[in-house]
């Protein structure tokens, strides 16, 4: 379990550029849960998850993961984080060695490492023939997949993803989401997903934390969130496109997926 | 305005040659708004970088406003005509504060300082980032960086603007704002080339190129392309949600008019 209590964070304290990025943030993430974090550009999402992963030092409040304070080095093995622009972290000469970098640092056997590289490449939909290619010779979306594979290969217990599907084509995106929220989640991984995509949140999150200007504006299920227009507006969010269509039809029921929307329309609209 | 003839681009690299563009032909008129969609690695960014001569054809030709991009004499005139928002905003940061970063391209064009300031202010205002003028660009959030990159190109006031996935990191309202800004630029007469993985954004262009394996496999209006729901799905592409929902309802014996593309059209048909 991850427990975040009263976390506040200010960038560039006592300079003219001082910026309060987070204020009194508290929430828990229970094991096996998918927790989404949403909010306007600059609302503090990336800052928050970097604090949770121990990559930005706490200024006040506490983060406890499986009874360990986040500053404890053992946390590094428990938590894997995919950054918002993960392709910036690529530096090895080939795709294969880049993905293998983390597992190598964990001191795994060569056989285990190559098995994990293969599995991770399959999970993100990178063809095996790209193994020996330089990551700098890939397209934007391909590079992003390499970066995600590098974290999946660590098999963390807690997986934190900052906009993982930005820049992926629709099919690649769908396959990756199915992988993460299917097999990976079923293997017992707890997931924190930062996303601007309300469809994805609707489909996969158990709960959503909505941030606005560094504060928590809402915590609850996606279904609750999408029925609260005022909160959505304040946070720069919108309900999923299917819900917007239902609203225009004056149907008050909310749909989270296209399947649900189809059923609701079948029920409410006459087949002319 | 832009004419592409038998364009091929081959990247030479350690792991061998990679054909990224394989026989591309089209022309885009002044004032058109063209969206480009396609799978990761299909060649969209490679094609985009040819419009302002960042990449030159391995074979074939590109003419921008009649200027052959592969002729070195034309380089500056081509760049004065074509502004480009890159896929990865971080790689573009060149200055220590936001306003200098936005001004960078203008200084290179030899524009007077007070004019530069005016244009920078307008551009920052257009992307809602005026408050961050004196900020360090590398300390901005992901979406804020994306807005700054867009401001840099607006300030250039080029006739042609190429956007390579400008909204990938924005929240829904931010995406809406940027797209309506792009439409405004188009209404002012700019030629727009807009690369995206969001089908509802592509649906708002006048013309859509679908790329696959270094080729343009379809070039048509968004209505023709996206209402061909089954074919697009078969090819592994997505369509706007309203088009998909309309198709599903037709299968359930709803009598809907053909080629429904937008939410409003679907709602109208169901009412
Ligand atoms: N290194 C830094 N120094 C100073 N201020 C920063 C730094 N990083 C972020 N900020 C500021 O803190 C605020 C929160 O940024 P953060 O990156 O957490 O936002 P975000 O919610 O992830 O936004 P986005 O959706 O655009 O990625 C922003 O206003 C940003 O400008
Ligand atoms: N610098 C490079 N060296 C060698 N090959 C490259 C280089 N840049 C891109 N490629 C290859 O060229 C092909 C086209 O890449 P491009 O970046 O144009 O794709 P894209 O359509 O923009 O994809 P994405 O949606 O992921 O951004 C890819 O197969 C890629 O691996
Ligand atoms: Mg962020
Ligand atoms: Mg690209």
- Number of discrete domains of chain B: 1
Bound molecules: adenosine-5'-triphosphate, magnesium ion
CATH superfamily of the largest domain in chain A: P-loop containing nucleotide triphosphate hydrolases
Q: How many helices of chain B in DSSP terms?
A: 11
H and E order of chain B? EEEHEEHEHHHEHEHEEHHHH
The structure class of chain B reads alpha/beta
Low-confidence runs of chain A: none
CATH topology group of the largest domain in chain A: Rossmann fold
CATH class of chain B: Alpha Beta
Rg over alpha carbons of chain B: 20 Å
> What's the arrangement of strands in the largest beta sheet of chain A?
6-7-8-3-9-10
Key features of this structure:
heterodimer, A: about 270 residues, alpha/beta, Rossmann fold, six-stranded mixed β-sheet, 11 helices, about 20% strand, B: about 270 residues, four-stranded antiparallel β-sheet, about 40% helix, binds adenosine-5'-triphosphate, binds magnesium ion
């Amino acid at each position: 379990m991850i427990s975040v209590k009263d976390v506040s964070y200010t960038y560039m304290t006592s300079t003219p550029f001082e910026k309060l990025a987070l204020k009194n943030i508290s929430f828990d993430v229970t094991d096996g849960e998918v927790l989404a974090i949403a909010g306007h550009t600059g609302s503090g999402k990336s800052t928050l998850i970097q604090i949770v992963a121990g990559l930005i030092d706490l200024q006040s409040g506490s983060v406890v993961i499986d009874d360990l304070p986040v500053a404890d080095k053992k946390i590094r093995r428990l938590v894997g984080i995919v950054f918002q622009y993960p392709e910036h972290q690529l530096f090895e000469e080939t795709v294969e060695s880049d993905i293998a970098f983390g597992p190598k640092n964990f001191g795994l056997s060569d056989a285990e490492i190559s098995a994990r590289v293969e599995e991770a490449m399959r999970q993100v939909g990178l063809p095996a023939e790209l193994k020996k290619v330089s990551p700098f010779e890939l397209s934007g979306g391909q590079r992003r997949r390499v970066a995600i594979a590098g974290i999946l290969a660590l098999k963390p217990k807690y997986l934190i993803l900052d906009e993982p599907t930005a820049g992926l084509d629709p099919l690649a995106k769908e396959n990756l989401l199915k992988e993460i929220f299917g097999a990976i989640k079923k293997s017992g991984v707890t997931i924190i997903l930062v996303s601007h995509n309300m469809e994805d949140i609707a489909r996969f999150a158990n709960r959503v934390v909505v941030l606005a200007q560094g504060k928590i504006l809402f915590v609850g299920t996606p279904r609750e969130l999408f029925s609260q227009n005022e909160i959505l507006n304040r946070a720069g969010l919108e309900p999923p496109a299917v819900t917007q269509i239902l609203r225009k039809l004056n149907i008050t029921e909310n749909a989270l997926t296209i399947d649900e929307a189809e059923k609701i329309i079948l029920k409410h609209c006459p087949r002319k | 305005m832009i004419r592409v003839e038998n364009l091929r681009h081959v990247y030479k690299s350690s792991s061998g040659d990679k054909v990224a563009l394989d026989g591309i032909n089209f022309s885009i008129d002044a004032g058109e708004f063209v969206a480009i969609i396609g799978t990761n690695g299909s060649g969209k960014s490679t094609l985009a970088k040819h419009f302002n001569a960042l990449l030159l054809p391995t074979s074939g030709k590109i003419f921008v406003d009649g200027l052959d991009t592969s002729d070195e004499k034309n380089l500056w005139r081509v760049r004065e005509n074509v502004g480009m928002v890159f896929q990865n905003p971080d790689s573009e940061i060149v200055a220590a504060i936001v306003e200098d970063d936005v001004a960078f391209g203008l200084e290179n064009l030899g524009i007077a300082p007070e004019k530069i300031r005016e244009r920078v202010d307008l551009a920052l205002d257009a992307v809602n980032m005026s408050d961050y003028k004196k900020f360090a660009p590398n300390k901005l959030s992901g979406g804020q960086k994306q807005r700054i990159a867009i401001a840099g190109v607006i300030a250039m006031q080029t006739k042609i603007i190429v956007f390579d996935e400008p909204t990938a990191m924005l929240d829904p309202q931010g995406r809406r704002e940027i797209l309506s800004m792009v439409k405004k630029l188009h209404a002012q007469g700019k030629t727009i080339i807009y690369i995206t993985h969001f089908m509802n954004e592509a649906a708002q262009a006048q013309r859509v190129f679908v790329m696959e394996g270094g080729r343009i496999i379809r070039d048509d209006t968004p209505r023709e392309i996206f209402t061909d729901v089954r074919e697009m799905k078969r090819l592994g592409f997505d369509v706007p949600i309203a088009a998909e929902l309309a198709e599903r309802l037709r299968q359930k014996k709803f009598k809907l008019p053909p080629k429904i593309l937008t939410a409003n059209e679907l709602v109208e048909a169901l009412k």
